[in-house]
Design brief:
about 325 residues, 10 strands, globular, alpha/beta
Length: about 325
């Protein structure tokens, strides 16, 4: 029996039985970022391991544009058979709050399968700035209302919204200044054009380790695995400042549960592989699998959290 005939024959079986032979063709991971970025590299590292485990090739389909809407829409419209996956991220949650109307429902049209990894968000300053800790920044801002400048990247990015969340959590008056991309933000910090900056740790880690920038706090619920001596914002008294960047794999909403469960098991196994974990660790990614329910709760929680930040900051919707 040929491959196409075998696949056709399988469609007559219950999904529980068909899941045992899944996948019957190449898998495709639609990535909402250009090739070469951390999100793209994460997808490629995991895809290579999944291909080995599942006996089918796993193709990366880069579709950047419109804040991830192009990629998400392609997956929402795909056949819900488990062969097309979406590299979802906290950016997916942000987009839900930034757009007045989307061609899909971010919650109802996707089934998150598992998280892949988490990225620390860090507060940075110039090493000669008068801040040794995040508590110093808060104290300065309260003593000089409106004088503190906080740099971030583009308006509406996770980093930009994290800077706004820092303001509200610390109850300070400060100006958030967006820059076009990480290199420009790092340049502004090194040139002392801004007092502090909020950025993902990975692209700034070399600057921190080299002494060109000072890390003041991480915004995660726990300390960074690569800077374990750096206290969190919560440890420094800014209780509400909890934010991280993450990614996950999701499928179209009507994908049968047995297939979702099979994919979740395979992803968890891939993330448990020592070589995969090392490659992700080298990118400063905390590899972490989850259940579909945990990934869904993370997405819904971030939609609510970032939506409130967008409203509070008065960021216009698109």
């Amino acid at each position: 029996m040929g491959a196409s005939a075998a696949a056709l024959a399988l469609t007559g079986l219950p999904w529980q039985a068909r899941a045992q032979t899944f996948p019957t063709k190449a898998l495709r991971i639609v990535v909402p970022f250009a090739a070469g970025g951390v999100g793209d590299l994460t997808a490629r590292i995991v895809a290579a391991r999944l291909a080995t485990q599942m006996g089918q090739s796993v193709v990366i389909d880069n579709r950047p544009g419109a804040g991830g809407v192009v990629a998400a829409d392609a997956v929402a419209r795909a056949e819900p058979d488990g062969h097309t996956l979406f590299l979802m991220s906290n950016g997916t949650a942000v987009t839900a709050g930034l757009f007045n109307k989307l061609p899909f429902d971010t919650v109802k049209d996707f089934t998150p399968v598992s998280t892949l990894g988490f990225f620390d968000i860090v507060v940075l300053s110039h090493p000669e700035a008068p801040f040794k800790t995040l508590a110093d920044v808060v104290a300065y801002a309260k003593a000089h209302p409106g004088k503190l400048n906080i740099g971030s990247i583009n308006i509406g990015s996770t980093q930009n919204l994290a800077a706004e969340l820092f303001k509200s959590s610390a109850d300070i008056e400060a100006q958030v200044i967006p820059f076009n991309g990480t290199p420009n933000l790092i340049g502004a910090l090194r040139g002392r054009q801004v007092d502090v900056g909020v950025e993902i740790l990975a692209p700034a880690l070399a600057q921190v380790r080299g002494g060109a920038l000072r890390a003041l706090a991480v915004a995660g619920e726990k300390r960074s695995v690569v800077l374990p001596d750096l206290p969190t914002a919560q440890e420094q008294g800014v209780a509400g400042f909890v934010a991280s960047s993450w990614n996950a794999l999701a499928v179209p909403a009507k994908t049968p549960r047995p297939v979702v469960e099979r994919l979740q098991r395979e992803i968890a196994a891939a993330l448990g592989d020592a070589e995969v974990r090392k490659k992700l660790r080298d990118l400063n990614i905390d590899a972490r699998a989850s259940t579909p329910e945990q990934a869904s709760a993370l997405l819904v929680g971030d939609i609510r959290r970032w939506g409130a930040v967008i409203e509070r900051a008065g960021i216009p919707k698109q």
